[in-house]
Amino acid sequence: MVHGDPDAAGGGRAQRRRSAGRPAARSRPRVTVVGVLGELLITAGVLILLFLFWQLWLNDIIVRAEQNDVAHDRAQSWLSDAAEAPDPIVADDGTEVYEPIIPEPAADTEIFGVMTIPRFGADYAADVAGGVTRPGTLDPIGLGHYLGTQSPGEPGNFALAGHRTTYGKPLNQIAELRVGDAIVLQTKDGWYTYRFRTLEYVTPQSVDVLNPIPQSDEAEVTDSFITLTACSPMFSAAERIIAYGTFESFTPTAVGPPASLTENLED
C-alpha cells in the first residue's frame, strides 16, 4: 500500500528534476565601506594622473607653442619699425662693430625683449619682461629680468629668471647648453649676442650670482655678462641652476639679424 498523494510525490520529483537542470541563484556581493573607499581612491588616483599629464606635459607643450608664436610676432614687428643704423666702429682686425644701445631698465611686467637660444630649437623664442614675480612675469609671460641688475649690453650682469617646468618652461633645456652656444636677446634696438660659458648649482640663498660680476664683490666692472637662473632639480626648488655667458656683440635692427641666430650646432 502506498501512503500519501501520488500526484504530490510525482510533483516533488519533477520539481527536483527542474532544480537540477539550472544553476543555483548567486548571492549578491556585499557592499562594504572598505570596497567603496577603495574604488574612490582608484578613481582619485586616475584623475590625479590625468591632471599631472595635462599640467606637466600636454599643457606645457601648448603654452610653449603659444609663447613661441607671440614672441616671434613681437620680434617681427620690431623689424618693420627699425630706426636708422648707427655708424659702425672699425675694430683692430678691420671688422665693423657697433656700440651696444643700452635700453632703459624695464618696469615690472613690462615686456622689452625676446630671447632666442638656437640650442633650444629653431622655433624657440621667449618674451622677456621686467621683474621676477611668478604672478606678474614668470607664469604669464616667460622670462623675467631681476630689476636690480644691469640692462642688456651694459657693463655688469644682465640677470634673468625662468621656469624649468610648467608655464611653458622657457628654461627647461638650460642644462643642455654647451660652451660657445649663442644666447641672443632681441629688443626694438637690435640683437645682443652672448656666449654661454659655464653652469653651476647653488642654494637659493646664493644671491651673489646677481652681482655685477657674478659671485664677486669687485667694484670695477668693465665686461658684460648674462646670468640665467632656474630651479633645480626638476620639479623641485631645493637648489638653483645657473648659466653664465659673456657679451659678444650688438647688431642694430636696421643691419639685420646676426649670424648667431642661425648658426649650425654640432651634436
What do you see in this structure?
The chain is an alpha+beta fold. It has a single domain (55-261), classed as Sortase (Sortase, Chain: A), CATH 2.40.260. Helix content is 25%, strand content 24%. A hairpin with a 6-residue loop joins strand 9 (224-232) and strand 10. The longest helix has 48 residues, at 33-80. Mean pLDDT is 85; it is low at 1-10. Residues 14-24 have a biased composition (Basic residues). InterPro entries: Sortase, Sortase_Class_E, Sortase_dom-sf, Sortase_E.
Task: Quickly list its features.
Sortase, Chain: A, 8-stranded mixed beta barrel, alpha+beta, elongated, disordered N terminus, 267 residues, single chain
Number of domains: 1
**And the CATH topology?**
Sortase, Chain: A
- The mean pLDDT is 85
CATH architecture: Beta Barrel
Name of the top-level CATH class: Mainly Beta
N-to-C SSE string, H for helix and E for strand? HHEEEEHEEEEEE
Shape: elongated
Low-confidence stretches: 1-10
